[in-house]
Every structure is written in C-alpha cells, then in structure tokens.
Fold this sequence. Notes:
By secondary structure, the chain is α+β, with helices and mostly antiparallel strands.
Amino acid sequence: xxxxxxxxxxxxxxxxxxxxxxxxxxxxxxxxxxxxxxxxxxxxxxxxxxxxxxxxxxxxxxxxxxxxxxxxxxxxxxxxxxxxxxxxxxxxxxxxxxxxxxxxxxxxxxxxxxxxxxxxxxxxxxxxxxxxxxxxxxxxxxxxxxxxxxxxxxxxxxxxxxxxxxxxxxxxxxxxxxxxxxxxxxxxxxxxxxxxxxxxxxxxxxxxxxxxxxxxxxxxxxxxxxxxxxxxxxxxxxxxxxxxxxxxxxxxxxxxxxxxxxxxxxxxxxxxxxxxx
Length: 277
C-alpha cells in the first residue's frame, strides 16, 4: 500500500492506484525532494531528523513543507499496512513534488504532491568498493545540499561505478575537493583522525553522517580528492548502509581498519538503543 495525496490530504491505496499526473512537476522536470529511511522492526529510524531535512530541502526548492503530524500519521499507516508482508529489512521513502504544472520550469498554483511508499531491502555486504567518477558536484549550485528527485546525474555515475565492479560512485567538486557518493557520505581516516567533507563542499547533510559526527570523534575538513589514494581507512555512511567499510577504492585495496570497526560497532549500539535520536 502507498499513501498518496495533495498537500496534507491523502490516503492509502494499492500500488496500481497510486497515480500521479504526467504533468506533475516532479515527473516533468524533477522538481521534488525526498527522504529515504531504514525500517527496523516495523519502526522508522531517525524520522524526526529526516523530516527536518525534508523541510530544508523543500525550502531550498521553494516548496511548501508538509505538516509533520500528517506525515507521521501517514508513515504509521504505511508501516501498519506492510507489517505482515515485510518482516525483514525495509526502506521507507517520503517524496514531495511541485504538483501539476505547465510543461516547463514555471510552477503551477496547485498543492504539492506527497507520497509515502515502503518496500523490502537487501542487506549490504560487510564491506564495499568505490570508484571516483570523471564528473563533479557543483558546490555553488542553487540546489546544493538539497535531496532532490533530480537524480539522473547519480544514475549515470552509479552505472559507471557498477560497470567497474564497485557499489558506489564518488564525486569531487569543482575545486577538486572530495564531496560525496551518489547516495552516501564519505569518511576517511588519516593518521588516526576521522574526517569527512564539510557541507560547503556541496555534499548532502546525511543523517547517518550527522550522527557519526555526534557519536564519535570525527570532524569536518576540506579534503582534496586525492585523499582517497592515501587514507588509512575509508568508510561510507547512509541511511541504509549505516557505517559501511570500503575495502577497494578505485584500484587500491584496503582492509577494514580498527577505527572504522569501532565506529561501526558504536553506531550499531547507539542506533539500536534509540530509534529516533
């Protein structure tokens, strides 16, 4: 079942009845924002933080944010509807678009489209591999830092990575600084110090990234893209990966280092103890 509506009014419907107009601005020009959350034992992890980030993304695009109470109730309805059919790992996505609009960049004068969907998810492998791509993130973009539905760039980059045997593609920015993955943030360990790119690099303010910064001694820094070739340890963070060690970066092999392991274990303990930190 999928919850779908306009503005703050909607209802649960079967997938084949969850219809969105072909004139919806999210479809025609990618004018929308979204959040993806992991579902643990029938509950969404870090929902409050995700809703706050949804608001920030919507504000950057000039979209009206949905009422959080409405979204929470809709999320609860979706979770309940799937309680029997999805018992293992799952992901839940909230999507907000500009609604029906003219065929162009101008917005219409209708309420935004809001949709909430859930599906099962496969567990990630113990470690992963990354490939840097020849394209860049624009840290000066009007939508830098927003989690938007305009994902074609990520699709192309991820296909590039998959063709080279990697699970994630890593972007630098326009000044050759390390930025982010297509759906993850990047951390490196250099001389025992855990570092991740600053938000000024153009990367998304990931929820798991935020929690790792709060729950460990990691800190932000401006990092040259070349750090991937020399870092002692590398790991990715995302809402579905949690803390995911990198054991191959381009043509370089790495082990799962002790600092990454400690941060991964601590994250597991803390996130299990509080589902809405």
